Amino acid sequence: MLIVLNGKETEIKDGMTLADLIRYKGLEPDRIVVEYNMEIPKKEDWEKVALKENDRLEILRFVGGG
Amino acid sequence: MMDDKLIIGGRYITSRLFIGTGKFPANRIIPDVIKNSKAQVITVALRRIDFDSDEENMLNYIPEECILMPNTSGARNAEEAVRIARLARASGCGNFVKIEVISDNRYLLPDNRETVKATEILVKEGFVVLPYMNPDLMDAKRLRDAGAAAVMPLGAPIGTNKGLKTKELVKILIDEIDIPVIVDAGIGKPSEACEAMEIGAAAVLVNTAIATAGDPIAMAAAFSKAVEAGRMAFLSGTGAVKEYAEASSPLTGFLSAWESE
Hints:
Helices cover 11% and strands 33% of the residues of chain A. Chain A has one helix at 18-24, and strands at 2-5, 8-11, 32-36, 56-64. The mean pLDDT of chain A is 91.
């Protein structure tokens, strides 16, 4: 199924949760922030977020800035 | 002078030099830059992860004891700034936020009106809000009334290293506003950071001047000393400026005078 991940249409496996996707991408949960359909799910709830077709997901991290 | 404490958002801030983490030649030098600068408040930005490149997370380079101050760079209006601030807080790295609302791409000057709006919303949500602003007295009062923890007027446009070009306006804010005034942006040299501190700024935020120096680690130490010197000078009370010369040595008992006596 297709979701919009960081502004790009992205094919992911059906039945994935948000936590599955984070693991699949090899990201450290402590160091990232996620916005799911304009809401901010708590980290402890990532396992419960079942991704659906056309979901809009933003996965962010801190970079250098002034 | 021993009791000269800067408190922001209920936290005792150990250094009046805040530093940004952008534009460094390599992230691996950032821990040494932070150590040498003695800075406690460190700014970072929030960005999308690019899955096509192997990127580093800035948090890996910032010591745990620092206070992280995410900025809302990229926000063009209050709504976007609020969105970014909420996301930054969700990272679990504290509730300090530097509001930065910019829609002017050439000079990167802040939009004070949108900044006031974002400040009003975020203060109500429990953020410690430090807004980057144009040094306008009325807007500084609006930000204070909205509950900002400090105001951060620019010294010169971001990244220009031009120095404290807004000095007279910043002075007015320092005189009239009872929350900390922190000079953010434009400071290019330690002498300019010192100048801001001498006129009574509560702190300065420096990024480009350190990051783009020939030796950023040594420059971090230079800024640290300059900020401390400027603060000490402010607390000491600088002497009056006079139009005509006033001798520092006694005007009596000259050798020539002895001869004529």
